[in-house]
Amino acid sequence: HAKACGKNVYKMFDRKMNEHATERVTLLSDLRLALERDEFVLHYQPKVDLLTGNVTSVEALVRWMHPRLGMLAPDKFIRLSEESGFIVELTDWVLRTACSQAKKWQEQNLGSVRVAVNLSPYHFQRQDVKEAILSVLEATGLEPALLEIEITESALMQNDEYTCALFRELRELGMTISVDDFGTGYSSLSYLHRFPINTLKIDRTFILNMMKSTEDQAIVTAIIAMAKSLNMQIVAEGVETVDQLEKLKDQGCHEIQGFLVSRPVAADAVTEFFTPENHLHQHTDPAQPEPP
Ligand code: C2E
Ligand code: MG
Ligand code: MG
Ligand code: MG
């Protein structure tokens, strides 16, 4: 009896595996069509400077308007995109769309804010990442100073020689480099300072647990102190409550991002968060003298 039962369980498991595999294959062919059918959309989430209240940059977050399954969050399709190599095309689309959006805001005098794009480590496997980014900037007319690249801490720690060189070049061109989900990737201080990083984004799990766990609080404090000693900008992600905001302010955190300020929203909705400073901000050559 037990054997028969085990067989049934196995059969069921087998069927589930098949269903899973079929779902993947379907999703993958859907993914390829999704670009042609224009089913991807970017939402934007502001990062706000705690001292001035100004939006410093907006992060582009991809969503897939699936015809059958509705709006899919990135965790439903980024992994599959990475494993299948589709991530290269997807990232190109995200970069192009985000940069042209930032250029539009600028042209419509809605503001000069940086746009931040998440780069998958799989994307680096192509040898022409830098050229791909530069060609998007050229095609959209966006200045490099208005593009920010986010890479997760764990991705940064892989392949360090190459990544380090790449980011040094991107930074020399004027782009901003941010480390996403910081605190989860076990990087050491001595390691981190070798990378040409502008900004650390503290992972939202620490922000979430900070109010009830003294350990998490201590980690946040340490990350902020470390970032400051390395002259890095510090952003807390996933800020949802005023208590968290106050605590982070006390700790000297520079910027916050999270539902407290805004969820990721459509391009025309995020401009509501731009302040006059964003509108007036001109990226002029700092060497130029002030007009009399
Ligand atoms: P991430 O880059 O760390 O982005 C932050 C995620 O946290 C976003 O989820 C955002 O909606 C969510 N979030 C922001 N504030 C809060 C908050 O206050 N509370 C909570 N609970 N969540 C908050 P989303 O949009 O689902 O993106 C998930 C991840 O998918 C991103 O994490 C990023 O790693 C990846 N991703 C998104 N867009 C892209 C893309 O264009 N390319 C690549 N390679 N990855 C992307
Ligand atoms: Mg990010
Ligand atoms: Mg993040
Ligand atoms: Mg995160």
Characterize the structure shown.
The protein is an alpha/beta fold and 292 residues long. The chain has twelve helices and nine strands. The protein has helices spanning 2-36, 78-84, 87-107, 129-140, 153-157, 160-172, 189-192, 204-209, 214-229, 242-250, 267-270, 276-280; strands at residues 40-49, 55-66, 70-72, 114-118, 147-152, 176-182, 199-202, 233-236, 255-256. The protein has an eight-stranded mixed barrel, surrounded by four helices. Helix 10 (242-250) links the parallel strand 8 and strand 9 (255-256). Helix 3 packs parallel to helix 4. The longest helix is centred in the N-terminal third of the chain and has 35 residues, at 2-36. Mean pLDDT is 89; it is low at 283-288. Bound molecules: ligand C2E and magnesium ion (MG) (3 copies). Residues 59, 118, 150, 180 line the site of one magnesium ion (MG). Residues 279-292 are annotated as: Disordered. Residues 24-278 form the EAL domain. This is Diguanylate cyclase/phosphodiesterase, HAMP domain-containing.
